[in-house]
Amino acid sequence: MTSLSPKFDPAALPHEIPDAVEQELRDFFDRRLSNIEDIGAPVVCAAETMRDFVLGGGKRIRPLYGWAGFVGAGGLDRGEEDPQAVLRAVSSLELIQACALIHDDIIDASDTRRGNPTVHRLIEATHRRRGLRGDAADFGRNIAILVGDLALVWAEDMWIESGLSDAALHRARSAWRGMRSEVIGGQILDISLEASGDESIELATKVNRYKAAAYTIERPLHLGAALAGAPAQTIEAFRGYGRDIGIAFQLRDDLLGVFGDSAVTGKPAGDDLREGKRTVLLALALQELDACDPAAARKLREGVGAVSDPADVQRLADLVGATSAAEGVEKRIEELTTSGLAHLSAAGLTGSVAQTLRELAIKATSRRA
Q: Which end of the chain has fewer CB within 10 Å, C or N?
């Protein structure tokens, strides 16, 4: 497969990988947009919105983990796969991320993402500006759903057409299939827990794993290692690291979802409480309030997912903050970070990849607001 990108240097340092991923994504969008012109201008416009969303932000952390899994498992040493094909393949993870974020923002009725209008709000605003027929909000939501679907389809295309050998694609097939089912299944579980008001810490942890951790860290590492032909014990060590660090990362995100600075997170303060997210943080807070202040527990239960005024949301955040729930989550983050790094040690990694994964673990789980 011919690439439009400058030839990728497989000796690139970790901090150089995101830029290389960015170029692969740009090249992919250039090819795909030209291929769909015959379908019609509205389709091109929708796809361009997806392109702008994907290229408009993000740390490219999933492709970085995918690349680290490949290199860490000895993929470069074996020399059986074209490194640029591997880079192109793991870059496709950004399109799965786009699908997840676009759909998640619709489900949560979010207005902003990364400090900018969400995709459905952007399309809604375009409908109004152009004076199109029908309800602008319905149009924005409906087109955005399809844009997210298209991102998932194009992720498959980019993965399959990356230039990897059939043998490598076969080795990674179960991880690829598992990852896609997990991220969608995690979203289904999340919505279901919100609807039922379930306060199970176990189920909230499953949401953290399957909706976020698995496709952010665990599966990208698994994919990269599988492409490299790593033995089962190496893959299991990578997955253990990815599972624990990924859940710790999401627990950190849950804290930011209640107490984070909107200037840092790019989303309104207390957004998780407004949306009714059933998090470990909320479950711990309710458990404590049930024991010491039932009236406050009742207010918190009644308010989560039912209030939208910033002052009301802040009052709910204050109720959570008055408990030791945040400290309990911090302890879980610390424990998971320690166990995740222990899995990394079990993999027997040395050198720059091991150092990068350690640094990423600390960065992902540390306080960010």
A: N
